[in-house]
Amino acid sequence: GAMLGLLGGGQLGRMFTMAAQSLGYSVTVLDPEERSPAGSIAERHLRADYLDREALNELASTCAGVTTEFENVPAEALRVLAERCIVSPAAESVAIAQDRILEKNFLAANGFGVAPYTVIQNARTSQDATNPDGALPQRQPQFFPDLFPGILKVSRFGYDGKGQVRVSNASELDSAFAGLNRESCVLEKLLPLEREVSVIVSRGFDGEVVTFPVSENQHCNGILDISIVPARVSPEIARNACDIAIRIAEKLDYRGVLCVEFFVLAEGRLLVNEIAPRPHNSGHYSINACVTSQFEQQVRILCRMPLGSTSMHGAAVMVNLLGDLWQKGEPEWEQVLRHSDVKLHLYGKRDARPGRKMGHYTVLAETTDAALRLALEIKQSLQPSHSTLETHESPRNES
Ligand code: ATP
Ligand code: MG
Ligand code: MG
Question: For this protein, what is any one GO molecular function term (predicted)?
């Protein structure tokens, strides 16, 4: 079969590789690391920087198409590849999605609702010879009072809530901006969220577009913790979210798999939080719960095949497994596997650092309530503090 190229070797790439292989393709991974979740299962692993000309030439000349799993791949790499082979998504879309300033400006300019925000720049870069050593944020006082309390977010390379600081007044803003030590950030109003949802949308080269069922996402310390699908919102909100996701994909002339994250406010108002130019953690449920997964969709688009059905029977809850669970060694997977409608996915990472995404499991059930109940029960049973031994032996003081 033909070869597909993949920029980035993380878990998203590993799941893409599995989907590609099950459709008969081979995969070449380009990643600077020696060992990576995708690199270790792909047919070929090119160990080089993303902008390494030789490696890019090699990819372009051996692969039918190239995609990315890494949000921060230099857009230039995609541009270079696109001169010689099929690339999904395009450099232009990735460039927007990986820069919070471009992203917010794009969304706002095209009429998609976003949280109130302003760009905070180092005065030195934003202007002006008259303020040669001004390291203070460039002030736009007319907007500021409305944005507190707010969140200051780095414009590039933030993920899992990293590079974000909550600020409640101008002086906290100044010190947070200095602390983040970036040329530019976005200050965003902190909003009262009723909940968060996301939509994975896939759009092919011929413009065919399909959304996945809306996912409801709960975060813990800025990291996705649980996704509940279908999201517990009205059909109208779900339809709106899908419409917006499709319109964003069309505005970008996007070719590939795109995730749109939303804030749900009171009265069902939807604001776009951010977009990710790739399959997304909140779409992992699709591997086990949908006819076609987000990764198979990514393969199909790259190979110019028709999109698959995203329909889903029943409900699913996905729970992330972070490195924290490995405190006392490998968790007891039997706690997951003894449930016959639960699917476990481990990413083959050796180094279980706290906060690191090591795997996930997906509970399948008829209703979200039933799936959530079992998901939380399993989550509890996996805690390092919880052991079958302790529960039986500890004295029961409470009753
Ligand atoms: P990801 O890993 O999804 O890329 P990220 O680092 O880009 O995360 P955001 O999605 O901007 O971060 O924010 C992480 C989480 O912080 C959000 O999912 C939400 O729970 C919370 N959050 C972010 N911005 C706001 C806001 N303006 N108001 C309220 N909560 C917010
Ligand atoms: Mg993000
Ligand atoms: Mg996010």
Answer: phosphoribosylaminoimidazole carboxylase activity
Ligand 1 atom, smallest distance to 191 CA: 28
Mutate which of 118, 151, 166, 221 for ligand 1 pocket (most atoms within 8 A of beta carbon): 151
> Which H helix or E strand runs over 223?
strand 223-229
Instruction: State the alpha helices, DSSP H only, in the chain.
Output: 11-22, 53-62, 75-82, 91-97, 100-109, 123-126, 170-180, 235-251, 286-289, 294-302, 334-337, 368-382, 388-393
Q: Which ligand 1 atom minimizes the distance to the CA of 150? A: 27
Atom 13 of ligand 1: nearest residue by CA position: 161
Angle 55-8-180 (CA atoms, 0-180°, nearest 5)? 115
| Domains contained in the chain, CATH given | 3-88 (3.40.50.20), 116-189 (3.30.1490.20), 195-388 (3.30.470.20)
Report the pLDDT averaged over residues 47-60: 98
Pairing, β 65-68 against β 86-88:
parallel
pLDDT in tens, 209-261: 999 999 999 999 999 999 999 999 999 999 999 999 999 999 999 999 999 99
Nearest CA to ligand 1 atom 17: 222
* Cβ-Cβ contacts under 8 Å for 332 (sequence gap 6 or more): 381, 382, 388
The reply, when asked if residue 102 is annotated as ligand binding, is: no
**Atom 7 of ligand 1, residue of closest alpha carbon:** 159
108 touches ligand 1 (CB under 6 Å): no
Instruction: For ligand 1, say whether the CB of 308 is within 6 Å of any of its atoms.
Output: no
Question: Using a 6 Å cutoff on CB, does residue 194 contact ligand 1?
Answer: no
Tell me what pLDDT residue 142 has: 42
Structure-block tokens of residue 126: 């934003």
Instruction: Render pLDDT for 369-387 as a digit per residue (tens, 0 to 9).
Output: 999 999 999 999 999 888 6
Q: Which ligand is closest to the CA of 219, given by its number?
A: 1
